[in-house]
Amino acid sequence: MTMAKKTDTDVYRVVRLTASNIKRLEAVDITPPDDVVVVAGKNAQGKTSLLDAITYALAGKRALPAEPMRRGEHRAEVVVDLGDIIVKRIFEATGTRLEVTGKDGARFQSPQAVLDGLVGQLTFDPLAFTRLDNKNRAETLRQLVGLDTTALDAKHERIYNQRRDTNRQAKEHAALLGAMLPIDKEAGQVEVSSTGVLARIDAAAAANNGIEEAKGVYRELETDLAAQKTVEENFAERVRELEQALKAGRDALGKRRNDIKAAEAISAKAKAEAERQEPTDLGPLHKELRNLEDRNERVRANVARSNVEKRFDTAEKQAQKFTDDIAAIHAEKVELLAAAKWPIAGLGIDDRGVTYNGTEWSECSSAEQLRVAMAIGLAANPKLRILLIRDGSLLDDEGMAAVRELAKQHQAQVWLERVSPDGQATVIIEDGKVAEPEPEPEPEPEPEPEKGR
């Protein structure tokens, strides 16, 4: 079998479309007469199925639904004639197969590879693009121009979250600083040990206890001396009464007097020693200890404030670093955006989403949005110049005129679905088939002027 060669044709459009048993379609055969093919009709008649048939034929298995065939049928077929090549996709109960042939009838050996070289985002719908949210609209545009900022966006999000957490910590440190006393320079930040003062207090207390014990001994000796004097007086009395015991009494008296003198000497020495020593006043030492604790309390406050100040400074510096990193990421993204090949001049992406001539997408006029969306759709399919618009009923007369103008300007073919005929229909679908357009009513003849007047 002769195999066709790849064609070098610049652009492709649908020259003829035939489809049978595709979803709601029974059988259609359409030769587009214009750049804009308006598929009109009531709901559930097969309008969407007609646009789907083009998608099924050209986009491949990735676009096929679970049930592409008309209910109750066992075979369906779509043939799209693109001029230099003809694409046929056949659906049967056992599966689907694809045939791509040249206009001379020769088959391509790898039909899917041929389509892959032609078809970009065939299903790109300009109106659907305009209704996307900012995030998905920007992502669609990034994919189209090959602008992959995934890594930069992830890095930006990570650093942004880190900066947010660091700023929160800095605010917490600042709140703590606001509740703290200022640094006491006199106290410094090194605590003084109270061990020395406590040891001196203990030593003084022990000395005081010794003095009290000495005074107790002295008082005991005085008591004992007084008792011995009483005994001496009693002995003298007895000497006077008992002369027969005079000698013995005198000996005893002499001995007792010697003992008394020794006791008096010891007592006098103890008294002099006790009176010579003065107890230490503990008041100044306790005051010194209180002052020391007060100073150390201020030292601890100084250290605590210094630590918070350090953490605050560290958090501020880290937050600034994160800000600088975010700025660097933004600059890198700006370079990538500047180097991207945009489908239309003035198009761009920033933190707000898609922009046109520096204006945020939502602030652009409907005409500007449609112009940009169609340019994007055509850029998505640089060789296959076909756009499918499924909500064409949303376009007013001005929008329809803009579609026709842009299609002609870009040598594009737009298949556009509208709910009911409105005088602009190219194809009317009724019950899965192409309906004959109703003939326009003939104008009524103007009345002839009456004679004689």
CATH superfamily of the largest domain: P-loop containing nucleotide triphosphate hydrolases
Largest sheet report: 5 strands, antiparallel
Structural class call reads alpha+beta
How many structurally independent domains? 2
CATH fold-type name of the largest domain: Rossmann fold
The percent range for strand residues is 5-15%
What topology, given as strand order, has the largest sheet? 2-1-4-5-6
Q: Could you walk me through the main structural features you see in this protein, from its secondary elements to its overall organization?
A:
The chain is 51% helix and 14% strand. With 453 residues, it is of the alpha+beta class. The protein folds into 2 domains: 1-124 and 382-453, Rossmann fold, CATH 3.40.50.300; 163-322. Strands 2-1-4-5-6 form a 5-stranded antiparallel sheet, with helices on one face. A 5-stranded mixed sheet has the order 10-11-3-12-13, with helices on both faces. A hairpin with a 6-residue loop joins strand 1 (16-20) and strand 2 (27-30). Helix 5 runs antiparallel to helix 8 (282-339) and helix 9 (366-380) runs parallel beside helix 10. The longest helix is centred in the last third of the chain and has 58 residues, at 282-339.
